[in-house]
Design brief:
Layout lengths: L1 H27 L21 E7 L2 E7 L6 E13 L6 E13 L5 E2 L12 H33 L6 H27 L3
Helix pairs in contact: 2-3
């Protein structure tokens, strides 16, 4: 019986040893078709698109922007070196002028300057826009009320066109009140 156990153990260990050697050979010389590859992703590309792919052991991450850059930028400089002429004498004038403009893709120049480097409005600019909208609304209501009390009775008695002139007077009061509200708001809230 000892012989049967001895030869049985040798047989099982031989099979396990050969399997390990075969497995090591398979792992060391892996076939090319089973090597992990990065997936092929067809990202739509255009003249204003950009993308960034980060790949690692845990997976991959794709950041895609279909309309990038959102703001186009142009910088120019001009060196001015000229001699002044005039009634009060001459002299040399030397200066360098810089100009930095931001454009949209359609070519419209941004003259507001309310956009930061990332193309987003700052919290102060949003606060100013909201405050200005409220001030224009309140000013328009006040201007309409004042026009209704002062101007409308005076112009409504004009023959044939009094009804039309009173409507114009209300619109005039509304527009003036809106402009006045915006001006007062800009002085108060430092916008």
């Amino acid at each position: 019986m000892n012989r049967i156990i001895k030869y049985g153990a040798i047989g099982v260990l031989s099979i396990v040893g050969i399997a390990h050697i075969g497995l090591l050979g398979y792992v060391i010389r892996r076939p090319a078709d089973t090597i992990a590859t990065v997936p092929t992703i067809n990202i739509p590309r255009g003249p204003y698109s950009s993308y960034r792919i980060k790949a690692g052991k845990d997976g991959y991450e794709i950041e895609y922007r279909s309309d990038d850059p959102k703001v186009l930028q142009s910088e120019r400089s001009l060196d001015l070196d000229k001699e002044r002429r005039g009634v009060f004498g001459g002299g040399r004038e030397q200066r360098t002028e810089y100009r930095r403009d931001q454009y949209t893709r359609e070519g419209t120049r941004n003259i507001g300057g309310a956009i930061d480097d990332e193309g987003k409005l700052s919290a102060k600019n949003v606060e100013c826009i909201v405050a200005d909208a409220g001030a224009q609304s309140q000013g328009a209501m006040a201007g309409t009320s004042i026009a209704a009390g002062v101007l409308v009775p005076a112009v409504s008695s004009i023959p044939y066109v009094g009804w039309l002139a009173s409507g114009w007077a209300l619109l005039l009061g509304q527009n003036l009140g809106s402009a006045a509200g915006s001006t007062v708001n800009s002085m108060i809230s430092d916008c």
